[in-house]
Predict the structure of Ca2+-binding protein, RTX toxin-related.
Amino acid sequence: GNDYLNGGNDNDKLYGQDGNDTLVGGHGNDHLDGGEHDDKLYGEWGNDRLEGGNGNDALYGQDGNDVLVGGHGNDHLDGGEHDDKLYGQWGNDRLEGRNGNDGLWGEDGDDVLVGGHGDDHLNGGNGNDALHGEWGNDDMHGLAGDDKLYGWTGNDTLRGGDGNDHLDGQQDNDTLYGDNGHDTLLGGAGNDYLNGGNDNDKLYGQDGNDTLVGGHGNDLLYGNSGDDVLHGQWGNDYIEGNGGNDWIYGGDNEDRLLGLGQNDRIWGGNGHDYIDGGNDGDWLYGEAGNDTIIGGTGNDHIEGGDGNDNLSGDGHDDLIYGGAGDDTISGGNEKDQLHGGDGVDRIWGGADNDLIHGNSGNDHLWGDDGQDTIIGDGGNDCIYGGNNHDKLYGEGHRDTIFGGTGNDYIDGGNDADRLFGESGHDTIVGGTGNDHIEGGDGNDNLSGDGHDDKIYGGAGNDTISGGNEKDQLHGGDGADSIFGGNDQDFIQGNAGNDHLWGGTGKDTFDFERWDGHDVIKDFSLRQGDTIQIDASLATHFGQISYWQNGSSAELYINHNVRVTLENFSASDIDKDLFSFS
């Protein structure tokens, strides 16, 4: 039947057996066994053991350190006061620890475990369980099944175990482990540690300075507010730092890493990663793989590392290093410092005044807008100054340099270079090697420096110096001043009234049909200088008239081109001074 048993005082054993029984332990350390059907067991005072048996039972430990065992059926276990142990066993049970440091084991079935006050241990067991730590520093294990774990207040530890679990630390500083399955972890308030474990997980740090570890699988990590540390580890991970100064590590495989918040540090790790620093000044490292890195707003520090990287500073004053590999680098707006590193790099300075180093490899470097300084360093580089007044240095090997618009300074450096001033009043120095120099438009200052150079002044009033060795110097349009320098030079003033100096060595001065009135300042018989006349102007000595004009000799070639030989006697002129081509 449906019995009512009350143990009263002392240590009692009560057995309900058949029927829907009510058992009350009373005082003492009692043992209550509900038996069959739906029973209610009350331990009351003392350290009691309550066993529900079969049926849907309700067990209340009340005072004392009690042990409650639900047995078969969908049971409700309430520990009450002090440190209790609750075992749901079979069925879909609800276990509530209440006060004290309690241990709750749901075991089989879809159970609800509530720790209550105190530092509790909650173990879901098999089934899809819901675990609520509530107050205190709780230790919670979902184990098998798709479980939901909620820490609430206190520094809690939540472990999902097997299955697709939902873990929410809520308040204070919590530790969350997803373990196996596709888990969702939320840190809540406080400085939390979240570890996704195996499979594809979602981790949300939320408030506080959190540490998030994705583990194996393709994970989503969101730091949210606070200064967070986020590790993707294995898999193709998506990571957002959001607010705060975050440290982000992509780990292996191909990751998408976004700082978004304040001054972030991001490491791509292995794989082909996408990195975006977002706001403020970030430190971004691609490491291994072919990475894409965007600095975003702020003064960013970017290093591509190994691989063929695509690096962009975006806004503000950025410092970018390509590292090893064939990199593409864009400075963006503001004043950037861009370094290609090893490999064949392509670098664009963007707006404002940039400093660009190609480093080793055959690089292509563009200054774009602003007054840029570009240094090719090692390799056969192509350099484009772009708009404004630029300083361009080839340095090592065979470089090709274009000044673009503006008044540029160009220095080829070592080896045989091809240097083009283009528009503007440019200064070009060939350096060592057999250089090809073209001033382009504007009043240019062009110097071959060492070795056998070819220099073309182009339009404008240019100053041209051959330097050492055998040079070919062409003034182009405008009133040019041309200095041959040492050794045997070929000098051609071209259109305009030019001043020509051969310098030391046996020089050849060349004249064509459309040349202006040129003055040779140092024509020397002793050095063996000669005058070469193009067939378009004259074909034999008889077409040349000459006379003395003060200290100078004047030549009039085929009634077309006039040449003055300063400090030279007309009586020394004969056909041996001329050649015709």
